[in-house]
């Protein structure tokens, strides 16, 4: 700023201070210091990505960069991170800023081994500046661009012929980098938490990364037309028996149908509430759809509409759910599902009420240790839980090891089957398979059964190696005792016969 009349401002531009000319003055800046004077205000940078335009000289090096343009003052800091927001410090180079037309330009370069670069891309270049920070995504496809793809493969029919009557659906993700997000599986639109296995990404010979994920499917689920969905980010793939084998539209009932599904005992026992489900199927679209649950006295329940699910026939289904207290449901109160849709001439109403079971009975529980023939092979051990004589048929079976719940994928429970006709009682069995080492280690395995007629609604039976040995030892003792008695009986009979024979011969001789 001017100190005295006639003193002028420095004009905009760049000045190099060679020497401060006042005699006896202090050279505070020093010779050669660059001083920039601009008539413009401060400016935030514009940030642009830099990628390789051709084939790099070596396939072992991965390079990307970014350039910040038009910022002022010269106070800018670069930073690099991966798609997973992990900071990068190695392989980063920052070039000095350059002044042009009163503003600065600077650039930064990132060099990594090719395998690391392809794994961690896209990268994010960030430029921090007093007037505002900027961020830009940078990816370098190079000469070997890999097209991302998701494929889903149906289960093998041969696998259904195994003892558990189940198989697996494969979802394969192929991309230029390791999978950043988890694979989500859905069964008829509901998130699948059990029976899902996802492997880590593996690089192939073409520098693509392959990720495999499997979902377990039973033969009954597949034959029933259950739709399985593999979801990665926003991309989804669907499969079902009808979609894979072809669907016959002539057999389709295209009318919108409304069905009510009563709550299952397992949910009531776990959450202490009863979930009411209203299933609307064969919807050409969900726009304008309204689902609501009502009490018999007219009170409306809080109803939640679940996401739409694609049916094998190309239409959609939507579930509307509401919850009530378990004791209200058990008392037999009546609930009504009301559905309206532009394709329905009149709103549909369907009632739902708990039906009292005739001949209600609590189940009997029996647990069986692995057969000795299987233990001899020392490969695996199968423990069986037989549940019989119960009514109504709704119950649940869980397995525990040393008091801790086991994953549902470790065992299979058959649907309840009527023991007679008419159905007065039902039976089912559950089979748990463990390793031979797990069984020989003496762990305690428990079959936990829940049913509404059981006192406290739950009962259990346990088995381990020691108890199975004692049972087998007792049975062996009984067998030995029976054999000994049979042998002794034979000798007694023969002895009596010999005495009778001797007496008869002596009597004849005396006569």
Automatic annotation (TrEMBL):
Record-annotated membrane-spanning stretches: 484-508
Record-linked SUPFAM superfamilies: Immunoglobulin
Gene3D superfamilies assigned to the protein according to its UniProt record, in alphabetical order: Immunoglobulins
Matches recorded under InterPro entries: Ig-like_dom (IPR007110), Ig-like_dom_sf (IPR036179), Ig-like_fold (IPR013783), Ig/MHC_CS (IPR003006), Ig_C1-set (IPR003597), Immune_Resp_Modulators (IPR050380)
Domain Ig-like residues, every copy: 45-139, 141-244, 271-353, 363-464
One Gene Ontology CC term in the entry: pentameric IgM immunoglobulin complex
Biological process per Gene Ontology, one example term: antibacterial humoral response
Matches recorded under SMART domains: IGc1
The entry's keywords: Immunoglobulin domain, Membrane, Transmembrane, Transmembrane helix
CDD domains: IgC1_CH1_IgM (cd21819), IgC1_CH3_IgAGD_CH4_IgAEM (cd05768)
Entry GO MF terms: immunoglobulin receptor binding; peptidoglycan binding; phosphatidylcholine binding; single-stranded DNA binding
Protein name (database record): Immunoglobulin heavy constant mu
């Amino acid at each position: 700023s001017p100190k005295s009349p006639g003193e002028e401002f420095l004009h905009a531009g760049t000045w190099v201070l060679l020497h401060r000319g006042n005699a006896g003055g202090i050279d505070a800046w020093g010779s050669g210091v660059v001083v920039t004077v601009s008539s413009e205000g401060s400016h935030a940078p514009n940030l642009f990505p830099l990628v390789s335009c051709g084939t790099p000289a070596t396939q072992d090096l991965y390079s990307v960069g970014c350039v910040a343009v038009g910022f002022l003052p010269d106070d800018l800091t670069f930073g690099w991170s991966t798609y997973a927001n992990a900071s990068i410090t190695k392989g980063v180079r920052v070039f000095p800023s350059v002044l042009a037309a009163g503003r600065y330009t600077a650039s930064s370069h990132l060099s990594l081994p090719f395998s690391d670069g392809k794994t961690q891309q896209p990268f994010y270049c960030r430029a921090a500046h007093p007037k505002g920070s900027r961020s830009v995504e940078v990816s370098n496809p190079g000469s070997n661009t890999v097209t991302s793809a998701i494929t889903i493969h149906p289960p093998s029919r041969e696998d259904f012929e195994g003892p558990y009557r189940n198989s697996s659906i494969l979802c394969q993700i192929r991309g230029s980098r390791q999978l950043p997000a988890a694979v989500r599986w859905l069964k008829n639109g509901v998130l699948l938490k059990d029976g899902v296995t996802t492997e880590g990404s593996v690089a192939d010979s073409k520098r693509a990364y392959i990720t495999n994920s499997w979902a377990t499917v039973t033969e009954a689920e597949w034959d029933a037309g259950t739709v399985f969905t593999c979801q990665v980010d926003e991309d989804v793939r669907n499969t079902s028996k009808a979609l894979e084998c072809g669907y016959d539209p002539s057999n389709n009932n295209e009318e919108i149908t409304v069905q009510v599904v009563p709550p299952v005992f397992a949910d009531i026992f776990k959450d202490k509430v009863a979930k009411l489900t209203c299933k609307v199927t064969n919807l050409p679209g969900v726009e304008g759809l309204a689902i609501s649950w009502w009490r018999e006295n007219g009170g409306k329940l809080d109803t939640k509409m679940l996401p739409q699910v694609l049916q094998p026939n190309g239409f959609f289904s939507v579930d509307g759910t509401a919850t009530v207290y378990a004791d209200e449901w058990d008392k037999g109160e009546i609930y009504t599902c009301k559905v309206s849709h532009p394709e329905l001439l009149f709103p549909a109403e369907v009632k739902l009420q708990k039906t009292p079971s005739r001949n209600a009975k609590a189940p009997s529980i029996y647990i069986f240790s692995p057969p000795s023939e299987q233990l001899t092979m020392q490969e695996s051990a199968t423990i069986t839980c037989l549940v019989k004589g119960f009514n109504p048929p709704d119950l649940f079976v869980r397995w525990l090891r040393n008091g801790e719940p086991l994953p549902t994928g470790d065992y299979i429970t058959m649907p309840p089957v009527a023991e007679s006709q008419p159905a007065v009682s039902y039976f089912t069995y559950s089979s748990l398979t463990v390793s031979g080492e797990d069984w020989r280690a003496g762990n305690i395995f428990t079959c936990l059964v829940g049913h509404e007629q059981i006192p406290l609604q739950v009962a259990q039976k346990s088995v381990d190696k020691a108890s199975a040995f004692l049972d087998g030892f007792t049975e062996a003792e009984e067998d030995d005792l029976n054999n000994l008695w049979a042998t002794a009986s034979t000798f007694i009979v023969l002895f009596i016969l010999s005495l009778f024979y001797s007496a008869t011969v002596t009597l004849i001789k005396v006569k």
